[in-house]
Amino acid sequence: MKRILLLCTIALAPLFGTETKVETFDLAPGLKVDVHNNCGGSIDIEGWENDGAELTITYKGDRSSWESASELTNDGLKIVLKCSGGWDSGSAEIKLKVPVMEDVKFYTSGGAIKMKNLEGRFKGKTMGGDVTLTELTGEVQITTMGGDIRVEQAELDGRVKTMGGDIRFKDVLGKVDGSTMGGNVTYDNVRTGLEGAGEGTPEDVVKVSTMGGEIRVEDAPLGAKLKTMGGAIRVGKAGKFVSAKTMGGNIDVKEIDGWVDVTTMGGNINVKMVGDPGVGRRDVTMSSMGGEITLYVPRELSMNFDIKIKYGKNSTRDFKIISDFAIETKETEEYQWFGGKKLKTIVGSGQVNGGKNTIKIETHNGNIHIKAVD
To answer: For the whole model, what pTM was predicted?
Structure first.
């Protein structure tokens, strides 16, 4: 059963203005909501404690070109909006209040998406607009073709993707990945819920990729795999491992209790290893095509050093390997060709505490610092 209320605000001409339509439905919890808007407009869905659902559609523009159909079925509530005039028809904003426990599927050809206070499975796509997900519990598969994505105060597994915009996760429990073709990605207080429960699986790792932007991860207890085509990478605290690559930008890992493999095509690298030096894999690979590299490691860590600094003829600095550990250094007498450039190489080698973990560090035109931490 549904009930309809129409509210109209007409401006300039009878067909061009704003019209609001309100419908109510006897929608039970645990069903599916399917919203499809082929001409564009925002979708705002919020869970409430009331029985049933309330749908509000606000048309802006040429109302005569719009058709809407809403139907209550055995599966749930289906809402379809169509227009005959294309983008000239204006837009239709959808606001929907439903029982908290509902699955949601949506599509809009252009508009922002907001969902709040819902439990279920959430799948959808907007051709252009921001996505805001707050207080959701369940599984998510959502894409925007151009806009920012914010996920906050949620318990979610799945994936969100934008073709051009920033992604921010804050206060999230679950295995949810973010991918952007051009924007910053931030993980702030994101946990899988498996901390301290063993090794976990590859799906429990924090995975972030962007075609161009900064990546920030505050905490990755089961490891992090990070990649940007251009921008800084910053990790607050990580367990197991950090694998990070940027085509241009600094890399900063405040704390890693495990192994490290980080590369930048141009920028400084700072990494600090923490934890019991005798537990787990603790190999280190750090590479920069141009910048300073600093590594902090426990003094008792078992290490085998493989260190290189390459520099060119026109370099005006006296580059060095500066280490708290005993490292033998040699410098090539002649310039050699590397990647189309004549370079000299400073090589550092040596073992301490048995030489178990490989410490491989290379930079061009920069110093390398290795510092002991008690």
So the answer is: 0.80
